[in-house]
């Protein structure tokens, strides 16, 4: 590999100041959207976090949105009150809803890959949004079942079924707004 090729590869793997600012901005957006929370009967609140994760993924793509969600989670883990209901602390990650939180970077990465490949592979974007959301639910339900000592049926009833209609609405809105924003933000590929 020539020095020019190595330099080009190194430049591609580094994040610019602009990229870092975008990731920080979207970590803040996720934190703000997490505060829009509706308590639900079985203990899993309905929040706008998944809307914000999807929005970040659509606007920033796979790597930057995963980083934005990791920054958000790191802030929450050390106790900054950025998680739902102005909470924070590591205990939130090992509680019944912790699986939803820890799956956010993977969800963002998957959806971001879909937006990055939407022109090359027809249906990649929609497929990625669905797969990213399903991954969020699977990890969330698995953690809920383990921590709450419940059955998978109870986990699905508490963590999935009440959220399907709003998940669809949030995904559609996040994708529509995100694609529109992506076209207008300097330095991002439309």
Automatic annotation (TrEMBL):
Gene expressing this chain: bioY
Transmembrane segment boundaries: 20-38, 69-87, 93-112, 124-146, 152-179
Gene3D superfamilies: 1.10.1760.20
Record-given protein name: Biotin transporter
Record keywords, A-Z: Cell membrane, Membrane, Transmembrane, Transmembrane helix, Transport
Keyword RNA-binding: no
UniProt keyword Isomerase, yes or no: no
Organism, scientific name: Faecalibacterium prausnitzii
GO molecular function terms attached to this record: biotin transmembrane transporter activity
Family of this protein: Belongs to the BioY family.
Compartments (UniProt record): Cell membrane
Pfam families referenced in this protein's UniProt entry, alphabetically: BioY (PF02632)
Family annotation (InterPro entries): BioY
Gene Ontology annotations for the cellular component aspect, listed alphabetically: plasma membrane
Membrane topology summary: Multi-pass membrane protein
UniProt superkingdom: Bacteria
